[in-house]
Automatic annotation (TrEMBL):
Keywords: Membrane, Transmembrane, Transmembrane helix
Domain of life, per lineage: Bacteria
Residue spans crossing the bilayer: 5-26, 32-54, 66-84, 104-122, 143-164, 170-191
Biological source species: Candidatus Sulfobium mesophilum
UniProt name for this protein: Spermine synthase
Coiled-coil portions: none
UniProt keyword annotation of Membrane present: yes
């Protein structure tokens, strides 16, 4: 059950972070179609890379501790995000790369790495959870469905409620705390097919 909760949380965080990303970029780049196109493209790129890397890494001696590190890493990035996001965004804005490339470069620098880490989670957990080839399809389908359902909830809760009651930086740091808390049990347990 723990692994399913973690997959759900990571799915929720990645889409919540994308919604908040629009607010991070807005002061310098507005909220045009170029900003949203940049954000969506970068997050999809990061998730795709994460899926690929997660599958490759999972085939090399997978463990719950390694999974914990991969979930804690974006947690640390989120906790420190307010320290570097505005200066990076300001610097890219000053370079005046145009209305298309400025938000794209900012999105790549600020959001690609965390989305790669969060993309790693689903294939890596699938590898840890698969006990039999006879049930591998069900296991993979369940984990990806939970991740996607988490993404839906993260999108709706963030856009409908959280943005109205807290600042963007506070929410991103809160996501960092949530990821670190979610990763903590993984350092002390061995995942099995019953998890």
């Amino acid at each position: 059950m723990l692994i399913k909760i973690i997959v759900f949380i990571c799915g929720a965080v990645v889409m919540s972070f994308e919604i908040l990303g629009s607010r991070v970029l807005a002061p310098n780049f507005g909220s045009s179609v170029f900003v949203w196109g940049s954000l969506i493209s970068v997050f999809l790129t990061g998730l795709s890379a994460g899926y690929y890397l997660g599958g490759r890494i999972a085939d090399i001696n997978p463990s719950s501790r390694k999974l914990g590190l991969m979930i804690a890493a974006p947690g640390v990035l989120f906790l420190t995000f307010p320290l570097y996001s505005a200066p990076v965004s300001d610097w890219i804005f000053v370079q005046d790369l145009g209305v298309r490339f400025s938000p794209l470069i900012a999105s790549l620098v600020l959001f690609l790495l965390p989305s790669v880490f969060l993309g790693i989670v689903s294939p890596y957990t699938a590898k840890l959870m698969i006990c039999s080839l006879h049930t591998s399809g069900k296991t993979i389908g369940t984990l990806y469905a939970l991740s996607t359902f988490g993404s839906i909830i993260g999108t709706l809760v963030t856009s409908f409620y959280l943005i109205t009651i807290a600042g963007v930086n506070a929410l991103i740091m809160g996501q960092g705390v949530l990821l670190i808390i979610a990763s903590a049990p993984l350092f002390f347990i061995n995942l099995s097919c019953k998890t």
